[in-house]
Design goal:
The complex is a heterodimer of chains A (413) and B (398). By secondary structure, chain A is an alpha/beta fold. Chain A has helices at 2-16, 19-44, 46-57, 92-100, 114-117, 135-148, 153-159, 182-215, 218-222, 228-265, 275-302, 306-326, 330-333, 338-345, 350-360, 366-389, 392-396, 403-410; strands at residues 65-69, 86-89, 107-110, 119-124, 164-169. Chain A has two domains: 65-160, 3-Layer(aba) Sandwich (D-Maltodextrin-Binding Protein, domain 2); 182-410, no CATH class. Chain A is built from 18 helices and five strands. In chain A, strands 2-1-3-4 form a four-stranded mixed sheet. The radius of gyration of chain A is 30 Å and the shape is elongated. Chain B is an alpha/beta fold. Chain B has two domains: 48-152, D-Maltodextrin-Binding Protein, domain 2 (3-Layer(aba) Sandwich), CATH 3.40.190; 161-394, no CATH class. Chain B is 65% helix and 7% strand. In chain B, a hairpin with a 5-residue loop joins strand 5 and strand 6 (165-167). In chain B, the strands form two sheets. Chain B has a four-stranded mixed sheet. In chain B, strands 5-6 form a two-stranded antiparallel sheet. The chains are: A alpha/beta (413), B alpha/beta (398). At the A-B interface, helix 3, helix 5, strand 4, helix 6 and helix 7 of A face helix 2, helix 3, helix 4, strand 4 and helix 5 of B.
Chain lengths: 413, 398
């Protein structure tokens, strides 16, 4: 027991005395704080905001655009369009001359057979194909449609669907976020990314520490006075504590920033994650860390040097990446569908997937408990399997790493 | 000369006839396949063909025309009329419909509707109901006009001189240069990575000492660079083949692949900007390899070079909105950020010729400088262990 504590203490001390640790722990939130502060400052100071937008967007050119109507459909520009947005020209030559004189920034040509083909040509000197979906082009499309519909604006709008849809949901648990709210999409996404990064970064610390000691032969000296199992336990606990401390720092800074940003942006930022979310976060982080850190330790024990070990981490981390692939689509759109539910209960993906679902709210009460139970069981099995791999023989050998050998050792052969 | 080729061939053979290279090569098509699969999975999840109900008090749907068929791959959603909300609600609770719309009596003057569901009704089903409304709204109109209103116009963007045009349907033309730019970036870093690895590894396990007895440092370096560039080009050629084959086969099935145009500017950029950039990064990586003493240290230093190269990728949204903004122009001229910036911009705009010319000159000059630097660093650092090369030593003449 005393030796475990010794290993633990040594790990913590070496890690936190490294400048790179503090750089990651404090630097990352600091960068975030800077970005927030800058954005807040730009929001307040109009002159600065304009300078930045000029650098980013370029000098504002004449926004007026011309059009040439060969079809005779466009009789008038509806009153809702700001006057001067679209200027009529009798022919393409006239429009081209106006374009060259800088009176308009671009022009449209409505084809003579517009009703049959729907063709509108958009002549733009800088040729940006995506500008055809911009607000102004959309407005021109609308101008043509209103005229085609006989000048009745309400009728023309109704052609594109109802103006206002009042939604009533009969689902038992009301969704936490309003539909189309960017937060409903962002919060699960950020939570997924955060948990992925936390688990990976603390697990990689373990990998680095083991394979480094193996590489520079410190391991040989260590093993004369500590058993492999004591070494593994001490390292996992020590690095886990450091990882947890880092999590707390990040979350605390993130929370403060969120509060501050609410004031800077005058947004009603009310994410309202329940308190139980933090408790689940702690549990899933610890168990997820136990599973992935042990798997990484196994890698470290088998690979001859850090380079080979890092190349092999992909094999171990693959299950954790799967929820990331889905994060922007499945977890945001359908957090309680079959795919999301399966991923959030399956032990190797649950630390990330369940947190993403909990962040979007409305998870059935028994699902997190089941996930925790399965994850805890897996953690026990994997820690035991890896402890078996942690034998002096494996630790001291300089064999090359193979994925096959790794899985064989994991099942105890 | 023979010695250079021998070094190059050895380097090429060592990496290409290797399981790991093959895996890296296959991983790109595999990732593409996974993304396509995911896309279809998500589409199929959106594809809910349970009927939609509606309660109409406005009289618009009293004797309805059927809804037009949706665009594939979405299946048609049947529309069911209900006399009152109670009937619709009980059908919803029985799971016969996925939701129902309520059209109030004044729908035609306010445009307001109500929607009731248990699970949110997905976009494709909503669109089908809107199309259903539109068809009935337009039943009095001239059929040709009605069809046009239903479908909307199609804007084709044309450059002022008429040399390039793109319809709203050909989005792929914008993406293609970006994809090509990314592929080249990956190749740039694998090539550079191999080069660095080669130098560091041979230094670390002291092979260098033996090799240097029979090859001059310049020959050694030249051979390595040629070998690793050949590896990168092999990779590009095979990926290019994969893309061309996909496009040729896919043309028969997917419409958006038919409108592909490769602008001459993009091809010009490949030669005058991308190629020198690859050489420059490779040389810089080799230089890093010669200064550091361990492979791990090298990986950390690589980050310093990789960061500026990826900046344009992070600013992609800005470039898409304003491809000719000052920040885009500045990044197009700076050696490390130029390749990706230019490739993002080339699909979106016509890049002024002077920018390409300046960028190419800067790029070639940077590549030559990088090679000179790499050669010098290599000669100074190749046999030095346990001690890093200092910047002062590199630039002081001795």
């Amino acid at each position: 027991m005393k030796k475990i504590l010794l290993v633990l203490k040594n790990e913590i001390v070496t890690l936190i005395s490294r400048p790179s640790f503090w750089l990651a722990a404090l630097g990352l939130p600091l960068v975030g704080a800077l970005v927030f502060a800058l954005a807040g400052w730009l929001n307040r100071d109009a002159a600065a905001a304009q300078t930045v937008s000029q650098v980013v967007a370029g000098p504002q050119t004449a926004r007026a655009e011309g059009y040439v109507d060969l079809s005779g459909i466009v009789r008038e520009v509806p009153a809702s369009v700001p006057p001067g947005t679209f200027v009529a020209y009798p022919s393409e030559e006239a429009a081209r001359a106006a374009l060259e004189a800088g009176e308009i920034s671009a022009f449209y040509i409505v084809a003579a057979d517009y009703i049959q083909t729907g063709a509108i040509t958009y002549v733009r000197p800088d040729f940006n194909p995506l500008s055809a979906s911009s607000d102004q082009s959309g407005m021109f499309n609308w101008v043509v449609e209103v005229n085609l519909a006989g000048g009745d604006m309400l009728f023309a709008s109704l052609v594109n669907g109802p103006l206002d849809v009042q939604v009533t949901s009969l689902a038992p648990a009301a969704p936490q976020f309003e539909e189309d709210s960017p937060l409903g999409f962002l919060v699960p996404y950020i939570v997924t990314l955060l948990f992925y990064m936390l688990i990976i970064s603390s697990a990689s610390l373990l990998l680095g520490s083991i394979s480094k000691e193996k590489e520079n032969r410190v391991m040989e000296v260590l093993l004369t006075s500590v058993t492999p199992r004591q070494l593994l336990t001490g390292k996992i606990l020590g690095l886990g504590i450091v990882g947890l401390a880092q999590t707390v720092i990040w979350l605390g800074m993130g929370y403060t920033l969120m509060n501050l940003s609410g004031r800077t942006f005058d947004l009603a930022v009310n994410i309202g994650l329940p308190a139980s979310f933090l408790a689940w976060g702690l549990v899933f982080f610890l168990l997820g860390y136990a599973v992935y850190a042990s798997l990484m330790a196994g890698l470290g024990a088998l690979a001859p040097n850090l380079r080979e070990a890092t190349q092999a981490t992909f094999v171990v981390m693959l299950p954790l990446m799967i929820p990331l692939f889905f994060s922007s689509s499945v977890f945001a759109e359908d957090p309680h569908g079959p795919i999301a539910t399966t991923l959030s209960i399956f032990p190797l993906t649950s630390p990330v997937a369940m947190m993403a679902r909990l962040a979007s709210g409305g998870v059935t009460w028994w699902q997190p408990w089941l996930a925790v139970l399965l994850l805890a069981g897996t953690a026990v099995l994997i820690v035991r399997a890896v402890a078996g791999m942690f034998r002096a023989q494996a630790l001291l050998a300089g064999q090359g790493f193979s994925v096959k050998g790794y899985f064989k050792a994991l099942v105890g052969k | 000369m023979i010695k250079i080729l021998r070094v190059a061939f050895q380097e090429y053979r060592r990496h290409v006839f290797n399981k790991r290279f093959l895996l890296g090569l296959l991983s790109v098509p595999l990732i593409v396949l996974v993304w396509v699969g995911l896309f279809f999975l998500i589409v199929s999840m959106e594809n809910n063909t349970t009927p939609l109900g509606y309660v109409d008090r406005s009289g618009l749907l009293a004797d309805p025309l059927p809804a037009p068929d949706p665009e594939p791959p979405f299946g048609p959603v049947p529309m069911m009329a209900f006399a009152d909300e109670a009937a619709a609600r009980s059908a919803l609770e029985a799971g016969e419909i996925q939701g129902y719309y309520v059209l109030p009596a004044d729908y035609l003057s306010t445009g307001k509707v109500g929607l009731v569901y248990r699970e949110p009704v997905k976009g494709p089903a909503r669109q089908q109901f809107y199309d259903f409304l539109t068809v009935n709204l337009l039943r009095e109109a001239d059929p040709a006009v009605a069809a046009r209103l239903l479908e909307g116009g199609e804007i084709t963007t044309v450059s002022a001189d008429g040399s390039r045009s793109a319809s709203t349907k050909d989005r792929f033309n914008v993406l293609l240069p970006m994809i090509a730019g990314l592929a080249f970036m990956i190749v740039m870093f694998t090539t550079g990575g191999y080069l660095m690895q080669a130098v560091v590894e041979e230094k670390e396990n002291r092979t260098m000492e033996v090799v240097i007895t029979s090859v001059s440092p310049d020959q050694f370096m030249a051979g390595k660079i040629i070998g690793d560039l050949a590896i990168g080009l092999t990779q590009i050629a095979l990926w290019g083949l994969f893309i061309v084959l996909t496009v040729l086969v896919g043309r028969n099935y997917a419409e958006f692949l038919r409108g592909i145009q490769v602008s001459s500017q993009a091809i010009l950029l490949l030669g005058v900007v991308m190629l020198p950039a690859i050489v420059m990064v490779a040389a810089l990586m080799a230089a890093i390899g010669a200064t550091v003493t361990e492979a791990r240290e090298g990986q950390q230093v690589t980050g310093i070079i990789a960061m500026p190269v990826w900046i344009p990728y992070m600013l992609m949204a800005l470039f898409i909105e304003n491809p000719n903004s000052p920040i885009a122009v500045v990044l197009s001229l700076f050696p490390l950020t130029a390749p990706l910036t230019l490739f993002i911009r080339v699909g979106l705009t016509i890049i002024p010729a002077w920018q390409i010319a300046v960028s190419a000159i800067v790029q070639v000059a940077a590549a030559i400088a990088a090679i000179w630097l790499a050669g010098r660093i290599f000669r100074l650092g190749m046999l030095r262990y346990g001690q890093r090369l200092k910047w002062r030593e590199i630039f002081v003449k001795n």
